[in-house]
Design brief:
The protein is an all-alpha fold. Helix content is 57%, strand content 0%. The mean pLDDT is 76.
Length: 72
Amino acid sequence: MIVTGFTAPRTHKLTPGQKITNRILATGRAPVEHGFAHLKNWRTLTKLRTNPARATHPLRALLVLTIPEANP
C-alpha cells in the first residue's frame, strides 16, 4: 500500500487536518529518503547484483552503521 500526501488544487487550500497529515507523512519519509541518499553516495545499490529479497541483510547492516548511537 502506498500512502501519499494531499495536494491542494488551485482553487482551494488544504484543510488543517490535511496539512497535519502531510507533515506526519513527511517526518516518516525523510529518514528513509536520507538513508537511500547515503546508499546512493556509497554506490551500494548500483553495484548490488543479487536478488532484492537477499539484499535486505546488507542494507540493514549499512543502515546500522550510518545511524549514530543514542546517548543513554
